[in-house]
Amino acid sequence: MGYAQLVIGPAGSGKSTYCSSLFQHCETMRRTIHIVNLDPAAENFDYPVAMDIRELISLDDVMEELGLGPNGGLMYCMEHLEENLDDWLTEELDNYLDDDYLVFDCPGQIELFSHVPVLKNFVEHLKRKNFNVCVVYLLDSQFLTDVTKFISGCMASLSAMVQLELPHVNILSKMDLVTNKREIEDYLNPEPRVLLSELNKRMAPQFGKLNKALIELVSHKH
Ligand SMILES: Nc1nc2c(ncn2[C@@H]2O[C@H](COP(=O)(O)OP(=O)(O)OP(=O)(O)O)[C@@H](O)[C@H]2O)c(=O)[nH]1
Question: Hey, what's the torsion of the CAs at 18, 24, 29, 30, to 10 degrees?
């Protein structure tokens, strides 16, 4: 059985930085991991790239030949990956042994883990190849500085949980930029009544019922 982490999260949340730090940590601990680039738009890497989607398809070529913009081009590349799971990915995975640990650095387009089935099918393929897969969801800690951002960050992470149905670890990135760490602690262990009252203060009165439902949902998720 192989092991895999799918590193996801919004654009710029710190996925590649996390992969690079994980690689350095494992090197120090004398453990081997292999990091896979699944972002056809990525250019610079601080880690050795073990497998690279850009060997299958290049975003620049897609944009030039099909006249697509960056987002449409990226979705096209990911759908191309989905169509090539049985050949390209299978051949690449054959290079790894049973106990190997793969870390997939994914693109940040939110639709990939909200409703587009590419990553879901990718995960199903890994499972068929006998990989034990978990999700590492990166969230910028700036999302935990304000109640409305907190709800939005929780909902984005929740949609990935529902879509991918995998063991799911949330990681707060960029903690060094947080000036008031106590504020973050309040959000890590939220008091539903306090959150609701803060949210109600921020929103027009007609959102009262919606706010209550959102806070209940977020509190259950914790
Ligand atoms: N201060 C600080 N900056 C960070 C941290 N992690 C990432 N960054 C910075 O945030 C920016 C985005 O980081 P990336 O690791 O490229 O984020 P990403 O999620 O891979 O980005 P995309 O692939 O574009 O979605 C870079 O400028 C990083 O240097 C952190 O823990 N602290």
Answer: 120
